[in-house]
Design goal:
281 residues, alpha/beta, Rossmann fold, 8-stranded mixed sheet, 11 helices, 21% strand
């Protein structure tokens, strides 16, 4: 397994290429990571086109859910989008938070930041900004966000525990997140997990569902809920690149599953240090 920095560079390289691809190109691939399937649909993404704030120029077809649909964003909120790409979720979030709110997108691929800023300028949004940086070391002050969203990004980051620690730091007390991500149930065949393109294509970077949820819990979040879950079916023409027919049959008939889940959780309010009757008042 490559070290963290090597994996980050791999993903950055892949997503710099993806930034210049069309929605149609990305929709016939694995999260945009190359034309690895002849099937004309994206095996991960959901349809954003009916959501308020949707902007076609910002839709690269890279998601695996609709986190902004479930994020309970209110007018005037400050929203942070992790792995903001060309700005799709940021613009949907801006429609909910309105002109009185603020939306900040973070992405570590310069080409994506440039594309998102161009899209924001076309829309004339002064309260939507994009910052280059890692989501496990966010270029943000602590406790500034009411809501954090992310769509099919954490699975690409080796240090997922670090990401959840940063989410906890950046959220205000009582704030919450809604994150769509790819998780596993059972063990993927080694050939799938080890291949670099599949890592950049969202699948091999995924971790076990129970481990993912425990990371959220162990970092102090409460009221953890799975808002949506769907199975991801990898087409045979992709599996054929990695597995022989016997292995494909075993993979399909086994207990292994690849799922998109949208998870909601809250950062709790701190309890008052002095409560009536405690003797400290």
């Amino acid at each position: 397994m490559k070290n963290e920095q090597a994996l980050k560079e791999l993903v950055k390289e892949k997503y710099a290429i993806i930034a210049d691809q069309s929605l149609e190109q990305n929709q016939s691939s694995c999260c945009g990571a190359g034309g690895c399937s002849t099937e004309v649909y994206n095996i991960m993404s959901d349809d954003y086109t009916q959501m308020k704030g949707y902007n076609a120029d910002a839709d690269l077809g890279l998601g695996c859910g609709l986190p902004t649909q479930y994020a309970k964003i209110k007018e005037g909120n400050t929203v942070v989008d992790l792995g903001s790409g060309a700005g799709n979720d940021c613009f949907v979030a801006r429609a909910a938070t309105g002109a009185t709110g603020k939306v900040i997108g973070i992405d570590f691929t310069p080409a994506m930041i440039a594309k998102a800023r161009t899209n924001a300028a076309k829309l004339g949004f002064e309260n939507v900004q994009f910052r280059e940086g890692d989501i496990d070391d966010m270029p943000l002050a602590s406790e500034i966000a009411d809501v954090i969203v992310s769509n099919c990004v954490l699975n690409l980051v080796p240090n997922k525990d670090g990401v959840f620690k940063e989410i906890f730091r950046v959220l205000k007390q009582g704030g919450h997140f809604s994150i769509s991500d790819v998780v596993l149930v059972g063990q993927l065949p080694d050939a799938l997990r080890k291949d670099a393109e599949m890592y950049a294509g969202c699948v091999s970077g995924a971790i076990q569902k129970e481990v993912y949820l425990e990371l959220i819990n162990s970092n102090g979040f409460t009221n953890i809920q799975i808002q949506k879950e769907k199975a991801i079916i990898i087409p045979d023409d992709i599996l054929n690149n990695y597995l022989n027919p016997t292995e494909i049959a075993a993979f399909k008939n086994g207990q292994t599953g690849i799922f998109s889940i949208t998870v909601y959780a809250e950062k709790p309010l701190k309890e008052a240090c002095c409560k009536p009757g405690s003797g400290c008042c």
